[in-house]
Amino acid sequence: MNYLWYTAITILIAFLLFVALFFRKSKFPRKRLVLYYLLSIALPLVIPYPWIEKILFDYLAGLSSALFISLILILIEWALLLFLIMKAYQEVVDSPEEKFFLFLLLGLGFGLGKALRDTLLVYFHSLSVFYGYSQFANFPSFFYLLQKIMEAQIEVISAGLLGLAFLPPAGYALHHLVSYSLLSFIPKGLITLVQVLIQFVPSLSFLASVYIISLLPLTLIIGFGLLWYLYRRRLYQIIEEDETSSHKKNFKKGT
Questions:
Q1: 65 within 8 A of 132, measured Cβ to Cβ
Q2: Which of 38, 142, 155, 189 suits a disulfide with 111, CB 3.0-4.6 Å?
Q3: pTM of the predicted model, to two decimals?
Q4: What pLDDT was estimated at residue 132?
Q5: Distance between CA atoms of residues 157 and 246, nearest Å
Q6: DSSP per residue over 46-78, as a string?
Q7: Is the bond leading into 169 cis (omega within 30 degrees of zero)?
Q8: What's the rounded Cα separation, in Å, for the pair 69 and 72?
Q9: What is the pLDDT of residues 76-88, one digit of tens each?
């Protein structure tokens, strides 16, 4: 079970590095960070995939069915991630940047939780009763672990894009939630689409050979670039909103 231990060690190291990089000077309680991280890891482990897959695979077949199943699973994962972000939104932090980093931590834990689920399924096939037909991973190797770490970053990007709608002090508005939610679907949807096409379209099976060396890294580069751009833009909006509100308060005081 070496790679099961490697996955667990990766989860621990990822948390320690993230805290050292983004929460080193923060006053946010470390126990709360650990709690949120463990919760985000645990949620992918409790998704009952067979309930969806069995119903649809029993009555549907082919590419359209697989795409529909993948969409449903993405929606379920999005709902769980939204739940985590809304819980974290209630936390008191020192700055919008710190709350945004907390959202990214949730995405990291969620992605690594999915990696842990797939690794457990390799060593304990009986778990397929709960995790479904299509969740089997390749036998663990260095490239398998690298792939899972990179796929976890897709969840970080999705959590970051969704979390932009919840940045304080303005909080979330419906139009922000809708627009950033749609954006958060893009990286997960692209990767899921490629994975489905590899399995169900024989003429596109060559994508499997370039998935980890080009498609996945390219998606990460574009995704993190888009996240950084929208994050900076959102901060400017918050600053402008603060300045506008302060001008209104000063005007009222003056009158």
A1: no
A2: 155
A3: 0.86
A4: 61
A5: 33
A6: G--HHHHHHHHHHH--SHHHHHHHHHHHHHHHH
A7: yes
A8: 5
A9: 888 989 999 988 8
